[in-house]
Specification:
Keywords: FAD, Flavoprotein, Lyase, Oxidoreductase. InterPro entries: Acyl-CoA_Oxase/DH_mid-dom_sf, AcylCo_DH-like_C, AcylCoA_DH/oxidase_NM_dom_sf, HpaB/PvcC/4-BUDH, HpaB/PvcC/4-BUDH_C, HpaB/PvcC/4-BUDH_N. Pfam families: HpaB, HpaB_N. Its EC number is 4.2.1.120. This is Putative 4-hydroxybutyryl-CoA dehydratase. α4 packs across α7, α5 packs antiparallel against α7 and α10 crosses α14. The chain is built from 17 helices and 14 strands. The protein folds into two domains: 266 residues, Butyryl-CoA Dehydrogenase, subunit A, domain 2 (Beta Barrel); 193 residues, Butyryl-CoA Dehydrogenase, subunit A, domain 3, CATH 1.20.140.10. By secondary structure, it is an alpha+beta fold. A six-stranded mixed beta sheet has the order 2-1-10-11-7-6, with no helix packed on it. The protein has a four-stranded mixed beta sheet with strand order 5-8-9-12. It is globular and about 75 Å long. Flavin-adenine dinucleotide (FAD) binds next to β5, β7 and α15.
Length: 480
């Protein structure tokens, strides 16, 4: 049966992969004192599939495969898209409120590849679509976790790939052999590479004929000897759960992913020089992945909303009109995202290979809204919480009887709320909105993850039928 257990998934990561953390080579990511936090976080989706409380969301019976990860269900209609959004939202909620895309981002890429490769094959007689299906089949059967490395390091942003000072600023083909290709370059910000089985590599932008060798897409095992995975740093377990309730257990991870002359066999290639399709593939993946983004965000909005309402209650300010208006602002923030998810699923279009693709306009509006207003939502929570979010004593002071009695007396707001509970909520708000780890990370994730603000604007403008409105105004004014 294609359903790995949490333990089997963790064991699959002990495969000699080349991971570097804070200047040192990591021999085993699963036992590393810091990376193991992330491994555990990423492995939770495997736990969920065996958890009777949520199994019906995470597991789906698929033709040919029987019970499999619901992430691999290829959407064919609005209901499938809504079920996928629910699955992604449930994943964040299950994973202590932090996103987990161990199987979401890979399937986003596979769905985009299925649609685009079937078109490339029709035009060029290539066999990419079969390659994608074969790879998909393996991923389902072995219940694999995938990272997607799309964002190139990009060098000078004003130049195209072939114009860069360093020809390796975008991943490209350096050798073509009868049995495959050799690729060189590096992708940046790749989420999850330390703890996945496969890396799917996609182009990051449109290409011209001169960029032909940069129009490349393929899959490679994360333990390929020429793939170097350089990790970002994150919070350590030493911080303690009381002080950093989110960061000590719920954290995603990114890498600089280097392809140091990596050989890719023919059957793992999805695009190799068909430059006219690089932009379409980049955009379609981005659309899928932004649908994932708007789907994983609501539980983070729920956390901001819940924390704001709870601390307002503990501080005795819930009844004041300005507080209610701020709570409503947070309701608007999160429910606008949920409304975009529904609209995007219902107003989908069917693409080549018979795949139902979310409506781009609602996806991009939702993604822009969540990114542009995240800091403001966090500010609202900080506003209601007060300055103790960053000035309160630590767990150790609460454990020391000499200081505990003062903390319990002076940092209490009401007789029915122990100081410890108030501090718990304040620490949670700090971690969520003001710590370097989860808070700072979520700010930048909102702005840049799944594409910058500007990328959402350009995509919305491109997809929206502005002419329809121009025609309407002309008709009202009797202009031919
Ligand atoms: C937490 C996190 C997780 C991520 N996970 C992944 C992942 O798993 N896989 C993956 O492939 N990527 C991932 N990304 C990458 C993400 O998609 C990029 O960060 C985003 O597309 C912005 O690219 P950049 O970081 O290179 O910034 P830049 O592209 O350098 O953007 C910086 C600024 O420059 C502007 N700019 C850039 N180029 C131009 C231009 N030509 N003309 C005008 N203005 C320009 C942008 O609009 C922006 O304002 C992740 C990012 C983050 C922060």
């Amino acid at each position: 049966m294609p359903l790995k257990t949490q333990e089997e998934f963790i064991a699959s990561l002990r495969d000699g992969r080349n991971v570097y953390y804070n200047g040192e080579r990591v021999t085993d990511v699963t036992t590393h004192p810091v990376l193991s936090i992330f491994v555990n976080h990423w492995s939770l989706i495997y736990k969920a599939k065996h958890d009777p409380k949520v199994k019906d969301i995470f597991v789906k019976r698929l033709d040919e495969y029987g019970e499999a990860s619901a992430y691999f269900n290829i959407p064919r209609n609005a209901d499938d898209l809504l079920a996928r959004a629910k699955l992604i939202e449930a994943t964040t909620a299950y994973c202590n409120g932090q996103f987990n895309i161990a199987q979401a981002i890979g399937t986003d890429a596979l769905f985009a590849l299925m649609s685009i490769c079937s078109e490339v094959d029709k035009r060029y007689g290539t066999r990419y679509y079969q390659n994608v299906l074969r790879f998909y089949d393996r991923c389902v059967r072995e219940d694999l976790a995938m990272a997607v490395a799309q964002t190139d390091v990009k060098g000078d942003r004003s130049k195209r790939p072939h114009e860069q000072d360093d020809p390796d600023a975008y991943v490209h083909i350096v050798e073509r052999r009868s049995d495959g290709i050799v690729v060189r370059g590096a992708k940046v910000h790749t989420t999850g590479t330390q703890a996945v089985n496969e890396i799917i590599v996609l182009p990051t932008r449109n290409m011209l004929a001169e960029d032909r060798d940069y129009a490349v897409a393929f899959a490679i095992p994360a333990n390929d000897k020429n793939v170097k995975i350089i990790s970002r740093a994150q919070a350590s377990k030493e911080l303690g759960e009381f002080d950093y309730p989110m960061s000590v257990k719920a954290t995603a991870q990114e890498t600089l992913t280097v392809f140091d002359d990596v050989f890719v066999p023919n059957e793992r290639i999805f695009l190799a020089g068909e430059y006219e399709y690089a932009g379409a593939l980049a955009r379609l993946f981005a659309l899928w992945h932004r649908f994932t983004a708007i789907s994983y965000k609501p539980p983070i909005g729920d956390q901001l909303l819940g924390a704001a309402a709870l601390i307002a209650e503990y501080n005795g300010i819930s009844k004041y009109p300005h507080v209610r208006s701020k709570i409503v602002k947070l309701i608007r923030y999160v429910e606008t995202i949920r409304a975009c998810i529904r609209a995007a699923a219902v107003e989908h279009k069917v693409y080549p290979a018979g795949i139902a693709v979310p409506n781009p306009v609602y996806v991009y509006i939702g993604k822009y809204h969540l990114a542009d207003n995240f800091h403001d939502a966090a500010k609202t929570v900080q506003d209601l919480a007060g300055g103790l979010v960053i000035t309160q004593p630590t767990t150790r002071d609460l454990e020391n009887p000499e200081t505990a009695k003062y903390i319990e007396k002076y940092l209490k707001t009401r007789h029915d709320v122990p100081a410890k509970n108030r501090l718990k909520v304040l620490n949670y708000i700090r971690d969520l909105t003001a710590s370097t780890y989860t808070g700072g990370y979520n700010y930048v994730l909102s702005v840049h993850g799944e594409g910058s603000l500007e990328a959402q604007i350009i995509s919305t403008y491109t997809e929206y039928d502005v002419d329809r409105c121009v025609r309407y105004v002309k008709s009202l004014l009797n202009i031919e």
